[in-house]
Predict the 3D structure of the following.
Amino acid sequence: MDKKRKRLIRIGAGAVAGLGAVALAWTGIAANADEPADAKGDFEAKVIGGEPAEEGQYPWLVALGYTGEGTPFERQFCGGSVITETVVITAAHCAEAVAGPDEVVVFSGSVDLESDDLVETAVADIHIAHDYNEPIDRANDWALLLLDEPVDVEPIDVGTEPEEFDALETAGWGETGSGSASVAEWVEVPFVSDDDCEAAYPDEIDAATMLCAGDLENGGVDSCQGDSGGPIMAPGEDGQILVGIVSWGYGCAEAGNPGVYAEVADFNSAIDDVLEDWS
Ligand code: ARG
């Protein structure tokens, strides 16, 4: 599968998930993500404004790929986070991009999709949030993947919500537009309050299940297409904790248009229920 096909699938998946507007906006992103609006050219960065992650920086960070031919880099279409040795959390709209568990694999064990340490694991079952797209489009954008066999990486804690969100980090292998590097990028993104986010996206924010982050004034730092499903994290008492899942945004890293994330603390108990079912 080449990059072009991957892109088409991604847009298709977005439309299915009710992300038509977002997907359309994407065609305009390449020119203005991290450069002045009149500048032409591809993204330099993946996660916008970030830098390559070190091995071991986010051991739980995984890539979702399509089953089949091609390198992991070519097959990658979303991100995810390992929350138990056999369960990965991702976005519902990522899980909906495949017809079933046979069509998706998980790549773990390295930030570099070309690394020999990368492990490919098959998926046995998929749970998509029952209330995905309720009460409004893109609300409850989370899903769980049950792995065929355990992965040997440190899981991230989804237990509690930190009191302060000032040092959020997000990471992933999102769209570059140039398709060269294979190493995940990470970036620090300022927390955006529910009020500010609702002002940025009137009638599109379900504050109960969405969390926003980005530099509202200047833009420049954000997740982007292909990072979906991956983590946004905050320091907890005992290492980093998962506070959100990359979900959507208008463009990427634009001033006034923050990134929107599924707010994990709001569906903690629903996650626990599925974990119990699967244990
Ligand atoms: N929906 C995108 C995906 O499927 C993620 C977009 C995130 N956008 C943003 N501006 N933070 O990969």
